[in-house]
Request: fold
Amino acid sequence: MGNADQELMQRLAQGDAGAFETVFRTHYTLLLRYACKITGDKAAAEDVVQLVFANIWEGRKRLEVKQLKPYLLRATHNKSLTFLMQHQRQASLELLPPLAEEEVDEVDEQREEVVRLLIDALPEQRRRIFKMSRLDGLKYREIATQLGLSVKTVEAQMGKALQFLRSSLPQALKNSEVSD
Reply:
């Protein structure tokens, strides 16, 4: 990261609203276009980018960013995908008939069980990394240190775990509904 970016991030960590505004003005349009490409919806893209910047401001004191632009693009990418998954889930739920409260609890328990089974199906190291990240809330760097791995290895294993879960979950849920 260039000296200007480093100085900007230091000022931001200290709560300098001017530094935040500079980051916002410099990157907003690029992030909006990027989010719009992913979500296909300008209003959603605006919400996504607002969330990215809100998270940056809220987490400014513990933010460890080596390169600002790639970090912002990755954060926007992740928030956009989260938006799409939530939107897709909401849309599919709206098509279902309303469930009684007991049925909702049963569906939630069933979904949790399917997710647990899928997590258990991951290779041992990948499963351990996934649980440390998602269940224990550890950062990739902390996981890497504890397991004696590189951060890149942890990132790669998390990516593979998430890809497996995203691709397997819909079919596994569908199969669990059929088996009832």
The CA atoms of residues 130 and 136 lie 9 Å apart. The chain is about 80% helix and 0% strand. Confidence is low (pLDDT under 50) at residues 91-97. The radius of gyration is 20 Å.
